[in-house]
Amino acid sequence: NSKEKLGPQINYTITGIDAGAGEMSTTQTAIKKYGLDKKNWQLQPSSTSAMTSTLDKAYKNKQPIVITGWQPHWMFKKYKLKFLKDPKNVYGEAEHISTIVRKGLKKDKPEAYEILDNFHWTPSQMSDVMLKVNAGVSPKKAATDWIKKDPKVVAKWTKGVKKVHGQSLKLTYVAWDSEIASTNVIAQVLRDQGYKVTIQSMEMQPVWASVATKAADATVSAWLPKTAAKFYSDYKGQFVDLGANLDGAKVGLAVPTYMKNINSINDLKN
Ligand code: PBE
């Protein structure tokens, strides 16, 4: 019943994801800035898969739910969701995903550096790969299929770059759906160039540390300017930012569109 207050119906709970995600700390800030803490709102940490399965159940029963959402992600393709307005601009307008490489990569592995620097795709291209993986295709196969389907896109990233012969290259990433997609795609492109590429998933802090200490060559998983801001400033000067590999990302609280009366974070207080 939409006339009932939202808070009591969902135990004043925002369904969140892994505690280490940048969006989780941004949401803690939002809870304070909007005074939701005074109304006993809390953020429930879980994982992307636990959150999306809770969302799935609520959605099937048209029950209310508030989640930590972001785009690009297949959740926005599978369900009709809307971001809540954020008049205090806690989450920022738009995010981009940056490619971060270790210092010295340009000199040591100029071909890899150039391809990583050229790597840029769109939310819709990334979603194509994510949807395949969500449908059960292995990330490596989904990446390879996508590269074959759209060879012109990849040709732009590798244009004029020399082939190499078995040099090793290590990429680290956080196992979010978006980064599973991007990391597998760029890893495959670099393999096709002749590199022996390993990819390793870890938490966000070790991803930044791995590039800063040169244990890894690069990561394509840096959501900025807000989501990974803490790590960007903690490790400033110890990495090279090659700029966006994807523009037009977004992070914020989201609800199903059938929650007609809830349109702004402020509405959670009512
Ligand atoms: N995310 C998806 C991540 C970045 C990618 C928004 C869940 C986060 O750190 O919150």
From TrEMBL:
Domain ABC-type glycine betaine transport system substrate-binding residue range list: 6-149, 168-270
Cross-referenced Pfam families: OpuAC
Protein's organism: Companilactobacillus alimentarius DSM 20249
GO molecular function, one term: carnitine transmembrane transporter activity
Keywords assigned by UniProt, alphabetized: Cell membrane, Membrane, Signal, Transport
Cross-referenced InterPro entries: ABC_Gly_betaine_transp_sub-bd
Transmembrane residue ranges: none
Lineage: superkingdom: Bacteria
Cellular component annotations (GO), alphabetically ordered: ATP-binding cassette (ABC) transporter complex
GO biological process: choline transport; glycine betaine transport
The name this protein goes by in its record: Glycine/betaine ABC transporter
Subcellular location: Cell membrane
Coiled coil regions, renumbered to chain: none
